[in-house]
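hiii so my PI (J.) wants the whole complex modelled not just the main chain, which honestly fair. so below is everything: two entries, each one labled with what it is. i double checked the lines twice but i was tired so who knows lol
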Amino acid sequence: MIVRRLTLHDFRIHHSTEMEFSPKLNFIVGGNGQGKTSLIEAIYFLCTTKNYKGAPDTDLLRFGQPGYTVHGVFEDATENNVHIRFLADENRRIYIKDGKTVHRAADIIGAFPVVLLTPEDHALTQGAPADRRKFIDSVISQYSSVYLDNILEYAKVLKQRTFLLNRIKENPGRSLTAELDAFTEKMILTGSAVIRQRDEFLQEFKSFVEEVYQEIMREEESPSMHYQFLEGAAPESDISALFRQKIYARRDDEIRRGMNLTGPHRDDIDFGINGKSLKSFGSQGQHKTFQVALRFAQFFYLKQRSGKTPVFLLDDVFGELDAHRAGHISRYLRQVGQAIITMTDLSNYAYLREMNESRMFTVSAGTVTPA
Amino acid sequence: MIEEFSKFPGIGKKSAQRLAMYLFRSKDQDFQKFVDAVVALKRDLHSCQICYNITEKAICSICGSEKRDKSVICVVEEASDILHIERANEFRGVYHVLGGVLMPLKGIYKEELRIQELLERVKTGNVLEVILALNPDTEGDTTSLMLMKELERFPLKVTRLARGIPIGGDLEFSDDATIGRAMAGRITVK
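here's the output for the full assembly
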C-alpha cells in the first residue's frame, strides 16, 4: 500500500498544502518549525485515526481558523479516500473512509499499515517499561483486533479494581472481598490472554529483529530480547495459575498501597546486545541501532502479518545516523516499498537525489514546493 | 414539555420537539389515554416480589404462570432485558433481575445488587439451573464471575449465554473481535 496524495487545510502550520508522493522514496527537506513533522503526523493520523503525539484537536488547528481537514489517497489493489475533519465550533472530529464515517479505530485495523521512526524512539530502549509496552501494544493492535479488545478491557478492569482497592483501604469495616475476588478473576482471565499474545508475538518478532541486524544494518553484533512478565516468570509456565498465585499472595500489599501490583501492566522487555543488557551497558550508537532495527522489524512483521506493505515514515532520523548507514538504509527501503523521510539539511545526503523514482520536497513556513 | 422529553434516553432536541407537537395536536381522547398511562406508570407499576420484573400485580405474569419452569432461573441485569429474551420465545424458565452489575467506580457493589435475593431463591432447593445472561462487557463478565463463585456451594448447573456470530450474520460482516471470540469459544460437534 502507498500514500499517493496528501492534502491539508489549516492543519498545524499548513494553510493549504497538496502533495503527490512517489511510490518509492520521498524526501522532505526544511528547517526546524517549518512544517515537516506535521506532514508525517498527518499521514500517521490518516492511517491510524490517532494522533501519535496525543495532541488535542485544538492544537492541530492552525491558529484562528474554524476547522482543519486532512485528506489522503491510498493506493493498493484499489484506491481509498480518507478524510479527517475537525470543526472547532462543534469541537467534533470525524473520520471518513470512502464516504463512510468510521467510529472506532478497530474498524480500520489492518487497512493502512504504517511504521513510524522518530527521534522520540530513543524511549523504546532508553525509556520506561511503559514505552516498551506501548510499542508492542501498537504493533500487535495493527493486525489483531482481538488483542486490541483485550488490552482495552484489561485497562477497564484495572481502573475498577484500583478504585475498589482504595475503597477497601479507606473502609476496612465493610467487607468487599467477594467484589475484589471477582475483579481479580476477571483480571487474571483478560491479563493472561494479553500475556500469551505478547509472548507469541515476541517469539516471532525476535527473529525479525535478528534478520534486520544482519541483512540491513550489516551489524556484527547480535541482538536479543526477553519478555519479562509476572515478576520474571518462565515462558513455559501455566500463566493463569501463576498469575493467580502471585496476585493472591500480594493482596494485603495491594490493599495497603491501593494499587494493582501484579499483571501485564507491569511487563517489560529486556533488550540485549551480544548477551549483555542494552539498558545497562549499551553505548549511544548501540541504542540508536537497536531502535532503528525495531522499527524495521516492525515493518517486515506487519508486512508479513497483514499481507500489505506498510508505509514507512522516518521523521528527522537521518541526522543521527552516519551518511554511510543512511544511504544503505535508503537503498534498502527503496526496494521494499514507500518511505517518506524528513530531514533538516540535504548536504550530507546529496547522493540520495540520484536514486530512481525518488521525489524531493522543500518545506518553508508551511508551504511545500517540489524540488 | 420539549425540555422534559429531551431528558429521555435516545431523544435529542429535534425528536423532543416532534413528540411535543404530536401530543399538542392529538385528539382529546388520545391525549387522555396517554396521560392516564403516564400516571398509571408510577402509580400501578412496581417490582415483582419474586424476580423483580416490572409488574402491576404483586407477582409478575411470568412468575405467576404455571407453564413456566421454576427450576430454571435466568439472571439478567435489568427488567428491560426480560423483554428482549421473551421476544425470542425460546426460554420457558423464570427470571431474576439483578438490578445492575458490579461497578466500583459508580458505587455499585454486591450489596447494591439483588444477589442475596437470588441465593434465597436457590436455597429452596427447587432450582436446577441458573443461566447467567449479563451483558458480555467488562463489568457484566466480572459480575458473572462473582455469581459463579457464590453459586458454587449449591448442587445446580450454572451456565452462561454463548457468544459469537449472530444468526443471519455472515462471517463477512462480523467484526474481527467477534470472530476471534467465537473461534476461542467454539464448541465440539463431533
